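Field: COMPLEX_INPUT
Field: COMPONENT_COUNT = two
Field: RESIDUE_TOTAL = 520
Field: MODE = joint
Values follow.
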Amino acid sequence: MRWSRLLPIAAAAGLSVFGARTVQAQAWLPPRGEVALTLGYSRAFADQHIDWLGHVVSLPYQGNALGLGTMTWNSADSDLSYGITDRVAVRMSLPFVASRYVGAFPHTGLPGHRNIDDGSWHGTFQDLNAEVRFKATRGALVVTPLLGVSVPTHSYEYFGHAAAGRDLTEGRIGVNVGRLLGPALPNAYAQVRYTFAVPEKALGISHDRSNLFFDVGYFVTPALTVSVVGDWQKTHGGWRVPIDFPMDANIVYHDQLARSDYFRLGGTASYALTGSIDVSVNAYASPYVRSEVNMAGFGVNVTYSFSPSQIAKRSKTPGHPAVRARPSS
Amino acid sequence: MRSHRWAPVLLALFLAGSASAGQATNPLRIGKPVPPFEAASLDGRPVSLAAAQGEHKVVVVVFLSTVCPYANHFAGHLHDLDEAYGPRGVLVVGVNSNHWESRDEVAAHALQHRFAFPMIKDEHHRLADHLGVTRTPEALLIDASGRLRYRGWVKSKQESPDLQRALDAVLEGRRVARPVTRAFGCAVDRS
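Field: COMPLEX_OUTPUT
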């Protein structure tokens, strides 16, 4: 889920977290006319529900207190970025999520909702994400405001531990800030991203969200980049888990409205296989969680960077020495 | 049925991207003459492609940045190339086109990396536009007849010395086996 090649540089691997709701900072834009296509796989899992005070939620079961079960999400991620100009870039992504719940407390029994907590895998396309970024500054400090939207591809099931997502349209506004840290730290960079998201209300209740993502990386060699990444989320509104949950049919909205707060911390490594193809791996955990599950996970991504105009030109000039000798791109 | 209120926004983004697809920088062709250019180096000496062709067998124009990790990673290699190939008739010319890197910073950077070759501060990225360069580092190799024989990275990410190999081929009168590589690194900042 990333635009490989950070800085205009190489690929910085981000967290591929739960259906693209979390994307890495992207302060640097791709050059005009360049495309980066990323295909990836990510796996996230959780075995605890954490309440609004940070305690593990458990319920009585056959005379004992029992956790709410385990959840696993496998996601096939696709992400396309394109530099319209040197100052404007667009990006689109669409994850396919296959998820499963195993436990004693499935969400069942409400009319109009599928039972996806039956212990089987359930797959669906989740939300189509689109974003436009604009490079606003001149100089070494790069400031890149953004506008984004997420639109569910269809009305997928959101009531269940194994839900692929919240099935809500949302708009986002935010800013990326990045800087190469040379000459003090010659091969290092840092970038942060703040977004304020406004999802559709449910039951007329707002549950807007702030996310602050950071990425501090180091170019070990021209081919290898490593970084530490983190994502802090604060939900403004919504329901605290479980104290605000209604004891009526509106409980069906509790996953959509959960006041999900967390801090996720992870690491990434990206390696250039060729001049155009990069592979990256990432892993993360959640050291701080409130009204959310204790998600952890890992992912692997392959990014192919190319210029459509150059490919078109090559296709029109067969036998040109530049064509014959060009590397994989 | 869900109401997709954002669909028009998505469509607009897609159309914006599609409409500009053909506007990417159009680089020079291998084997074709490179349009002449003139500039002044940081120390005030004129740098002319036409004049250099008369005095050197090969001209290597390499675009650099003072802060780009990739450009800096290969700075030592460029210094060594200049030292080793200068006596063989090769002129290396460094260019900095990032508008926010000052002449003083470029000069200090050249001193730090012991560049003996001329450095051009490319005001308003005219030379980068002229040669269709988008990255640092990116190198162009021009032979004595003024034709482009190689363009792309200085070395690959796996440290394959393709610029040096192209230099050897041209100096020995051979065909350059890999005349185009995909330059990588930091974008030339034209904003």
